[in-house]
Amino acid sequence: MRYYFKKLKNLEKASDLMKIAIGADHGGYELKESIKKHLEEVGGYEITDYGTHSTDSVDYAEIAFKVGNAVTNSDEKILGILCCGTGIGISMAANKVKGVRAACCSDYFSAKFTRLHNDANILCMGGRVVGPGLANEMVDVFLSTEFEGGRHQRRVDQITAIENGTF
Ligand code: RB5
Hints:
With about 170 residues, the chain is α/β, with parallel strands linked by helices. Helices cover about 45% and strands about 15% of the residues. The chain is built from seven helices and five strands; from the N terminus they run H-E-H-E-H-E-H-E-H-E-H-H. A five-stranded parallel β-sheet has the order 2-1-3-5-4, sandwiched between helices. The longest helix has 14 residues, at about 30-40. Residues about 1-10 have low confidence and may be disordered. D-ribose binds near residues 25, 27, 60, 85 and 89.
């Protein structure tokens, strides 16, 4: 009986899973793979991997564009994770996709507060900057922290107004 309930608890409907779009260039490939493994172990996520799938050299803009569109072109809430060598190029590219608020972070506090205050929808990290342990902690807090709203909503709306040319 106990086992039965345990099994039931472990059954997750696809609709209950939090949707994650993940991607990296060659500089972030290994970090992406390690984050994916971590999220699969934690469970509760439906992860779509937009590449790259090896350490062969690729251009980060293409991956940023795919993940940016996945995050913004959906009726469901989808959060993104992007990695390149520094996290910088891929975040710059992602932020050119309308509706993306990508934050390049290399510390836990920023990964948390960019959700609380900026309603960031993509976390970017550098595979040559942060180690896998810290990256997992940053991913966990980013994915589990809700936007605070309030005065921060006004500021996020101002970012959107700049994007729309209405500021
Ligand atoms: C690729 O060598 C590297 O330039 C890229 O991964 C990233 O760090 C760019 O910002």
